[in-house]
Design a protein that fits this description.
437 residues; seven-stranded mixed beta sheet; 14 strands
Length: 437
């Protein structure tokens, strides 16, 4: 395979030097800074399908896909056309548009738990707002979350978060008041006993459990058999609400999200990423009697000038329409995810590198571990230094990965078997380098 090197990425290095003069760390989101893997990030200039190009003109097969929204791939013609047409009519109004209801109808039709939906501008806004509603609806203050599950950077949720926070060794952030963090209880993912212990210690005081139905921010960790069903039962017994954070999983493994596939229906759901087709978006929804407590129908206040932005609504509608019109694409996407996972596993075995690939449909995480993790503590045992060497070797071979052991790889519908096989070939070379270098 054609190799590149840091010297070939001189344009990216200069671009980062410029950025660091005006942006903290040169980035607008910490994981982009490559702190966990070393060196300078590639600075991207354009994307098409499953490929991206940096400012130096080097080509990469992309498995970041904007951390999940680009299920159709970069610059999908239908999405680009929808954005262009919407922009020509006006980029923002601060007033109702028909596009909001049109996308809302798609979401309500698809997601089992959602009878009404409210659009916001980010996943963080969605989770923050949905938990405000849960507290109002139950008259309780406490929220239970799981170690390693990331639900955005709102103060009350930035406690034992995974993903970028794990990479930076900052499970909590300075600036989060202790009194605020105390309103968040922690349990262990896939461990119902730890959940029951918290409910016994705080009976009648927990407003909601918030959970990623398939964990994606400690790396991909699927739910154990009976785990989500157990959460549903615990909430029902205590009068708490069950909230699914489907910002990553929504419309990813199936058109109705993880809840449609796994057969467990939450009370409330947070969405993002795919429903904006690559533009900033978030949403939360649930049963009508809960959602009608949101202002102006009810007293629970939440607002946003750019909520329901017409460009994001148009991009989301084009994406969801494309998915809905050929649901068989999900089977193909799952097959591509399986091909990649199996190929990486085989290549690591041949190179005698300890690796286990955790997969949920088209999302995967190769952990440098001997066994698949079931929770955050087990995920954190992964060899992050080995991942860093692997990441750099893959980048040199034209494979663009998220720069963290604890992030997810995303396969898009623009990937094909040839690109998957090129990735496996690059991984085989990289594993040998990691093992013997």
């Amino acid at each position: 395979m054609t190799l590149s090197s840091p010297a070939d990425r001189e344009g990216s290095r200069r671009a980062m030097e410029r950025a660091r003069r005006v942006l903290p760390g040169g980035v607008d989101s910490p994981v982009r800074a490559y702190r966990a893997v070393g060196g300078d990030p590639v600075v991207l200039a354009r994307g098409s399908g499953a490929l991206v190009w940096d400012v130096d003109g080097s080509e990469y097969i992309d498995y970041v896909c904007s951390y999940g929204p680009l299920i159709l791939g970069h610059a999908h013609p239908r999405v680009v056309s929808a954005i262009t047409e919407a922009a020509a009519l006006g980029t923002s109004f601060g007033a109702p548009t028909e596009a909001e209801a049109a996308l809302g109808e798609c979401v309500v039709e698809a997601v089992p738990s959602i009878e009404m939906v409210r659009f916001v501008s980010s996943g963080t806004e969605a989770t923050m707002s949905v938990l405000r509603l849960a507290r109002a609806a139950t008259g309780r203050d406490l929220i239970l979350k799981f170690e390693g599950c990331y639900h955005g950077h709102a103060d009350g949720l930035l406690v034992a978060a995974g993903s970028g926070a794990a990479t930076l060794a900052l499970p909590d952030s300075p600036g989060v008041p202790a009194a605020y963090a105390a309103q968040t209880l922690l349990a262990r993912y896939n461990d119902l006993a730890s959940v029951r212990a918290q409910f016994e210690a705080h009976r009648g005081a927990i407003a909601a459990i918030i959970v990623e139905p398939v964990a994606g921010n400690m790396g991909v960790v699927p739910p154990a058999e009976g785990f989500l069903e157990g959460l549903r039962a615990i909430c029902d017994e205590d009068g708490a609400l069950l909230v699914f954070d489907e910002v990553i999983t929504g419309f990813r493994g199936s058109y109705g999200g993880a809840q449609a596939t796994l057969g467990v229906t939450p009370d409330l759901t947070a969405l993002g990423k795919i429903i904006g087709g690559g533009l900033p978006v978030g949403a939360y929804g649930g049963r009508r009697e809960l959602m009608e407590q949101i202002a102006p129908s009810g007293a629970v206040y939440q607002a946003g000038t750019l909520s329901g932005n017409p460009l994001a609504m148009a991009a989301g509608r084009a994406t969801l329409d494309t998915l809905r019109e050929d649901l068989g694409q999900y089977d193909r996407l799952d097959a591509l995810g399986a091909r990649l996972a199996e190929g990486l596993t085989r290549a690591a075995e041949e190179a005698e590198v300890p690796l286990v690939v955790s997969r949920s449909g088209s999302t995967i995480t190769p952990f440098f571990l001997d066994a698949a993790p079931t929770n955050y503590d087990e995920a954190r045992l992964a060899d992050t230094s080995m991942f860093a060497r692997f990441h750099n070797a893959m980048l040199d071979r034209g494979i663009h990965l998220a720069p963290s052991q604890f992030e997810t790889w995303f396969v898009s519908m623009a990937h094909d078997e040839a690109l998957i096989d090129r990735t496996i070939e690059a991984a085989a070379e990289s594993f040998r380098l990691v093992r013997h270098g």
